[in-house]
Write a structure and sequence with these properties.
Elements: H1 19-27, H2 34-79, H3 87-97, E1 101-103, E2 109-111, H4 112-116, H5 121-128, E3 136-140, H6 146-155, E4 161-166, H7 173-180, E5 186-191, H8 194-198, E6 215-219, H9 223-233, E7 240-244, E8 259-263, H10 272-280, E9 286-290, E10 314-315, E11 320-327, H11 332-339, E12 342-343, E13 349-356, H12 363-366, H13 373-383, E14 389-393, H14 399-406, E15 414-418, H15 445-451, H16 453-458, H17 462-465, E16 473-478, H18 485-496, E17 500-501, E18 506-507, E19 512-517, H19 528-536, E20 539-544, E21 547-548
Parallel strand pairs: 1-3, 3-4, 4-5, 6-7, 7-8, 8-9, 9-11, 10-12, 11-13, 13-14, 14-15, 15-16, 16-19, 19-20
Antiparallel strand pairs: 1-2, 17-18, 20-21
Protein name: F-box domain-containing protein
Organism: Moniliophthora roreri (strain MCA 2997) (Cocoa frosty pod rot fungus)
């Protein structure tokens, strides 16, 4: 935009007399002389001309201002550092910010890939030339999803596809057929099995068409689901399987499965499913056992009843086990029944997410038997495992329960604890669902004292007194009762300035620590020493009531 030139031509006429005299003369009833009338009229005309001239001047000034703003924005944009990024770095940024192209799943429509390709000419070229950006597709079978699905398939070229497909009331079979034509590129598949029930699809159409498929979801035991399961058995690269409500029969090709997720929605949760799966999958490396859908859909809490007969002893060489259950009565009984017959000599990671609603009526059942300490001791003794990662999330644990368990796993390097209803999951942490008051305090002064290197050295029994001597990473989420600020700071400092491990000749230091306190403001002055540790190399995060302190 070219700004027009601005020309100012001041008026040349002058008042016939001083303003005060002219005002008095015009107020008089005597008629103006012809000379006075002509002079005053000319002056008014000149003033009106000047007003119009200044209005044009203001308009021209605004046009010039807009032109300058556009030039500044254009040149600033072209001069910005992100313009200097190489294309391959820009692609990495795009891939990090665009995890999925959601085309109608859950009535949501958002696609960072389409948004990024609409910013500017350079970004459009980078986005279109980055096939991986378009490979992750979540789509309903709506007719309006067909065109964006076609664009994603075209721009993804021949790269592997990750798909999540959901049924729509007015579904278009053409969308499914379009995706099925690219089944040779499917790597991950999460498909609502109502699709197979609602569409008139021929049986066996997946047979031999899934050469790259690595992960899939099974919802049985409907015959159509069984047909799809038979097709999965022929997928040569299938390694990850999610089973909803039912596990496949023994005829399924279990030998290839490495990662298994068992999801139980309406059935009372029982560890029998998990033990059966561990016996079937001889080469399994990780097991996830949960009571709500893996995509975050929550259900009403269930009641657990221990099986009438003892569960058979089960040994597995998995390296990771994750348990996610939400029950009114807690999960202590379930944990006891699961770990009592279980032996895991190769396990290095255990994650237990045991949310429960503790109101006054269910207080006793929620703590039924308390933390199964004896069962866990027997499990660890049988397994002889070198546990390195432990997550205890959302359970009503006392500090003594945690410390006693931690002393059983001196090999632990990574510890995460979320107190009851201090969990990171927004769905099960709504304020309306929380109990009226806290019944347990997991993270306390006593807890930190057991981790403090200085206190262990003071009693001259470092190895037997100090819990978790090899701890590298500690993440804590606590409720508003937290009052152990100074004990926490002292513990972290002691872990940074740790003594030498004489046996190995290396210094054991806490490398990363995170403390998140919900619904409470923290005194920033108490955490000043941790800022120095952060400058010294430790990764420190402290946040209170949503505000970062460190």
């Amino acid at each position: 935009m070219v700004a027009p030139s601005i020309t100012i031509n001041p008026r040349v006429s002058a008042l016939p007399m001083p303003p005060a005299d002219l005002q008095n003369r015009l107020r008089q009833s005597a008629q103006l002389s012809p000379c006075e009338d002509a002079t005053i009229s000319q002056f008014i005309q000149d003033a009106e001309h000047d007003m119009q001239m200044y209005e044009r001047y203001v308009q021209q000034f605004n046009i010039r201002q807009v032109a300058l703003q556009l030039e500044i924005a254009r040149y600033k944009s072209l001069k910005s550092p992100i313009r200097r990024l190489p294309r391959d770095i820009l692609e990495v940024v795009f891939l990090h910010s665009a995890p999925v192209n959601n085309l109608g799943v859950g009535r949501a429509w958002y696609s960072a890939a389409f948004d990024l390709s609409s910013v500017c000419h350079q970004w459009r070229e980078v986005a279109i030339d980055c096939p991986t950006l378009w490979c992750n597709i979540a789509s309903s079978l709506l007719k309006r999803a067909k065109e964006p699905v076609e664009i994603c398939l075209s721009r993804s070229k021949n790269h592997p596809l990750s798909l999540k497909l959901s049924r729509a009331n007015d579904g278009d079979e053409g969308v499914f057929s379009l995706l099925l034509a690219h089944s040779n590129r499917w790597v991950n598949l999460d498909m609502d099995f109502n699709i197979l029930l609602s569409l008139a699809r021929p049986s066996g159409e997946f047979d031999g068409r899934l050469p790259l498929l690595k992960s899939a979801l099974y919802e049985g035991p409907h015959p159509r689901a069984q047909e799809f399961l038979n097709s999965l058995s022929t997928a040569p690269k299938l390694r990850q399987l999610t089973c909803v409500e039912h596990i496949p029969p023994g005829s399924f090709r279990w030998s290839s499965i490495r990662d298994l997720c068992l999801v139980h929605l309406a059935n009372p949760d029982t560890p029998r499913y998990a033990l059966d799966a561990l016996r079937e999958c001889q080469h399994l490396e990780s097991l996830v056992y949960c009571g709500w859908r893996h995509d975050g859909t929550t259900l009403e809490a269930t009641e657990y009843t221990s099986p009438g007969v003892p569960l058979p002893p089960t040994t597995s060489h998995i390296r990771s086990i994750t348990i996610q259950i939400w029950q009114y009565s807690g999960i202590y009984s379930l944990l006891r029944d699961l770990f009592q017959p279980l032996t895991l000599p190769s396990v290095t990671t255990i994650s237990i997410h045991g949310q429960c609603y503790v109101d006054d009526d269910s207080f006793t059942t929620a703590f039924d038997g308390s933390w199964p300490y004896e069962t866990m001791v027997d499990f660890l003794t049988r397994s002889h495992c070198a546990l390195t990662t432990l997550e205890l999330l959302g359970m009503p644990l006392y500090d003594d329960d945690v410390v006693g368990f931690l002393r059983l796993v001196p090999s632990l390097e990574d510890l995460t604890i979320h107190e009851l209803w201090a969990d990171a999951d927004d769905i099960v942490s709504e304020t309306s669902l929380r109990p009226p008051r806290m019944y347990t305090e997991t993270i306390t002064v006593s807890f930190f004292e057991q981790l403090n290197v200085g206190l262990a050295v003071a009693v001259f029994d470092w190895e037997n007194t100090l819990a978790l001597p090899k701890l590298r990473r500690l993440c804590l989420r606590v409720r508003e009762h937290f009052d152990a600020d100074e004990a926490f700071v002292d513990m972290v400092q002691s872990r940074w300035y740790a003594p030498l491990d004489i046996d190995n000749g290396v210094s054991i230091k806490l490398k990363e620590v995170e403390l998140i306190v919900l619904d409470k403001d923290l005194d920033e002055t108490l955490y000043e020493p941790l800022k120095w540790l952060e400058k010294d190399g430790m990764m420190v995060t402290v946040r209170g009531n949503g505000k970062y302190i460190v």
